[in-house]
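Record 1 of the preview.
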Amino acid sequence: MLECTIAGSLPKPSWLAEPNRLWAPWRLAGDDLAAAKRDATLLALKEQEDASIDIVTDGEQSRQHFVHGFLETVRGIDFARRVEIGIRADRYKALVPTVTGPLSLNGRVHKTEARLARAHTTRRLKFTLPGPMTIADTVGDAHYKSRPALAMAFAVLLNEEALALEADGIDVIQFDEPAFNVYLDEVRDWGIAALERAAQGLSCLTAVHICYGYGIPANRAWKETLGAEWRQYETIFPLLAQSRIRQVSLECRNSHVPMELMRLLDGKDVLAGVIDVATDAVETPEEVAALIAEISKHVPPARLFPCTNCGMAPMARPVASAKLSALGAGSALARRRLA
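->
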């Protein structure tokens, strides 16, 4: 009960990539970079275990960005042909590669880090992949000329890698779909179908992570425009409740999401964000436990998994480490109180 986990990413060590930055460039190359990624993955596992995180991840240490880390092994993507686009409905600009032909995988994508992580922890292991709608929103498209078709093409590739990850011993495969909180009509029309295609045939636990974005200035500014209540989840949760996805990861702490909206996920496991990644203020275990108690009024504790609001990739490592410890200690405190 109340097993805690993280959304997926942790900050990278400064010897691996430039700190406190999204899309941070690598500081090494070739064999040195490959070795550094392995070292950082092992360190991320150890930090989570030390913080009493129950369901750990690889920390996305081998990926420059959660989307582009997947795209690097995809044929039909031209990284030399980058274009600047507005992503998440023009919330911010990004320089992205272009889809120039039919998509296919050029071998395994995350085999090395998945097998490394599996070999070095006995805890349940979650692995994150970008969701098909979010990938389609984070690339230029000069081939498919249709976002639904592009997303479904990516869903097929995601499914291929997800099935291989399950064979590697991964216990939970999570698809990250921050775009679900932006394109609400599209979620209904084709987003859920693409997500289910990405998860097709999996026997392990499946999850979807839907947040309001990293704690970067552009996302914080966007949140200021959303009003006193953030009700995007009210549209998409009923759709997810009818889907084959087993778990839903959502933003909660310091948000304006009405907690009662979690009731719309009846029958699903709820990974509720009790750690805010948009502030350097570190939550106390007592604050975490108190929020878990509030959430448990809407979600049965047996289906509740305390989590972080979003990935910690752009955060300072000491802050992220302290927040990990607060998550683990606060979850344990809540577990004792609700037992």
